[in-house]
Design a protein that fits this description.
The structure is a homodimer of 418-residue chains. With 418 residues, chain A is of the alpha/beta class. Chain A is built from 15 helices and 16 strands. The interface between A and B is large, with 65 and 66 residues.
Chain lengths: 418, 418
């Protein structure tokens, strides 16, 4: 069967399954997730064996260590997959919740009810745990899901997927509700992106080129999980001690993630007091600093930041630093170079804090806290499928609620319009 | 200046303006809308003069009477534009509302705040009142708006737009927050759809070909306001008197709108009792009936419905009728041929009503009421910019809330992540 037909068949089956899944009880969905967690446990050695094959091939292709790290599974990471499934199972079911209800003067009861989106396509790179995380969240929110992972993780993904699918087969939920694209052909993604008759939402998770390809070619609505060029702005009225702790945390606590700080903005009135100490501590933590002209006057011997640096998500121990002459300049910089992800101001000044909150156009805007908190668990949502950098439907961490839409349910007793 | 540059310049200006508009006070936005309504009143004769030009050109081009009717303005329709603006002004401002807030164990206060989407592009056909309706709603929700109306209404749109823009010029809100594309070149829409760096949302309102062109070519997220192939299903347990009234209302009260019924589904056990009376009343109301084989056994001499009829939005005094043998068949028919807009069941049976509500995949699902209620005013939202037939972000009538997104505002006192 050619790719086009294969993908079409998958999408049709996923759509059909989504109708039964949509009316599955919470109990049945939870039972499926429990069985999935058990099957991952039972299948651990098979999954690790498949993962070894992927790793060998990646090493042969001379992939970077960071890539191989993301690809690698071990007992601890498999336990992580299992506990993620169990955590998702424990969350309240959001499907069928009434968000809002109004009794109209004519007696009509109009209620807004949370319902699944339908069929979700997720396109991701070579992190095999994404396979089970996404299936758990989509199943709990009663969405069919079609997964297309990076071909470098294909053996791992197939092994994980088989565990999950065989668990689902023991329930009344149709197994077609979860689908894995196993074709290595590049055209598979393009074919997927055309099927707006069957797929309701596409979520690309990965690097710039993947996101770009998906956005430019999709006829299906897309919610992007794009890069995090996050900023911490140290205001002239900052508690500099607090600013120091927040900036260090935002940069070095886990530099390879999207909510880590990439650019530090410092008001010129405090730059001479603030930069030397943080410069020293960052260097001691192994951070390479790239500064603007004014930063370089204070921190001697550092690299110059170029225009490109301001746009860059390093995901690494590198930091761009810019001294700004006003709050306005800081906000303008963030709105121009940032990625609308997470940005923080450190300030004791009420007006500046309020102005920053209102005018920075990002999903998550912080006063006096580290950008590292942008995360479904930290936000109290229980789990997340990613962090949306888009503005429509869902912004910031996406949990179960964000994986649903709503329908209006209208109850009457014979009302007609006059 | 060529079209490409012109559109780009507009979009850049609209984006810039959106930042000031986003922090404009409710008072200032309301003052702008009041001035707009006054200017429309003052400019009425100029608007009607411009509209005459459009009508003449349309008549010369031998456009259909329904088209010319939609294009035509008169004193009553201008009053309608004015009162729409005034109604929107009176609505509560939704920008800045806190939708949800949580205090986390570490002391962080995480609040979800309603904020404008940014820049909205609206592509519509030849109904000039849409110009002022959309500008009122976008201004109230603090979104910049770029309008591209049908070229057949260009003189009317320019005249209306000039009234609104000169009103805005008297306020502190930048006039660039509202933009009208006046180019008649077909490439203007294509250029608009590329500018995802400046425009956050595209809303096409119009016929199938317009929606298709926009969906297939947009790099910007789209919310479609597509056709309404609405159904009324008369269950075997229906109160047939009620069903008669609802079906008549849904079909004939205003057949040219998207929430009118296009297909009537009748359970076979009640078809012989239900169809003769409604068939007679529909015929008396001038409705042409196209029936399935079983319908034609009961209603002699009517036309046959073809496969195409089930997909068709007539917007006219034509009705497709199908006799079904079960609730399941009715639901399957609606999910296959419908447009996910508005569908109703008439039934006194609890289980059937619940099943219909749960399984019909439409924005608005009714029990025992006419589909004609799908409307922002009728739903108690005050006003609407259209009715979304999509699943993401907004579904069904879109009012002010649906014209916003949210941001997370996080207030800390030095929290860092462990």
């Amino acid at each position: 069967m050619n790719v086009k037909k294969e993908i079409l068949k998958m999408a049709e089956a996923a759509k059909r399954a989504s109708f039964s899944l949509g009316s599955a009880s919470s109990l049945e969905k939870d039972r499926a997730i429990t069985l999935m967690a058990k099957n991952i446990k039972k299948g651990a050695s098979r999954i690790l064996g498949a993962n070894k094959k992927d790793i060998k091939a990646a090493e042969k292709k001379k992939m970077k260590p960071a890539f191989i790290d993301r690809l690698t599974l071990n007992a601890r990471r498999i336990d992580g997959m299992i506990s993620s499934l169990e955590e998702v199972r424990k969350l309240d079911d959001v499907v069928g919740q009434i968000i809002q209800a109004r009794r109209r003067p004519n007696g009509l009861l109009i209620a807004k009810m949370r319902v699944p989106i339908g069929v979700i396509g997720i396109i991701y790179e070579a992190r095999p745990n994404v396979t089970s995380d996404c299936i758990g969240l989509c199943l709990k929110s009663a969405n069919s899901v079609i997964l297309k992972g990076g071909s470098e993780a294909l053996y791992s993904n197939i092994a994980i997927f088989e565990c999950l699918r065989s668990a689902l087969a023991k329930t009344s939920i149709p197994v077609d509700a979860i689908q894995l694209v196993t074709s290595k052909e590049r055209s598979a993604v393009r074919e997927l992106l055309k099927l707006n008759a069957y797929i309701d939402l596409i979520m690309p998770r990965g690097g710039e080129s993947l996101i770009k390809e998906v956005t430019e070619n999709s006829r299906i609505p897309v919610i992007k999980h794009y890069k995090g060029v996050c900023h911490v702005y140290v205001d002239e009225y900052a508690d500099l001690n607090m600013a120091h702790k927040i900036a260090m945390n935002a940069k070095v606590q886990r530099p390879a993630v999207c909510n880590a700080m990439e650019t530090l903005l410092v008001h010129e009135d405090v730059a001479a007091r603030f930069l030397p100490a943080i410069g020293r501590d960052l260097s001691n933590a192994g951070v390479e600093i790239r500064g603007c002209r004014k930063t370089k006057v204070i921190l001697k011997g550092i690299k110059s930041a170029t225009e490109d640096d301001w746009y860059t998500e390093y995901l690494d121990l590198i930091l761009a630093v810019k001294v700004v002459s006003s709050l306005d300049e800081a906000i303008a910089h963030i709105n121009k170079y940032g990625s609308n992800h997470s940005d923080a101001i450190v300030s004791e000044n009420y007006a500046n804090a309020v102005s920053f909150l209102g005018r920075v156009d990002s999903a998550c805007v912080y006063v006096n806290a580290s950008t590292r908190f942008t995360d479904g668990y930290e936000f109290g949502m229980g789990a997340e499928i990613g962090i949306s950098t888009d503005k429509l439907h869902a912004r910031g961490p996406m949990g179960l609620e964000e994986l649903t839409t709503y329908k209006y349910v209208i109850l009457g007793n014979g009302q007609v319009r006059a």
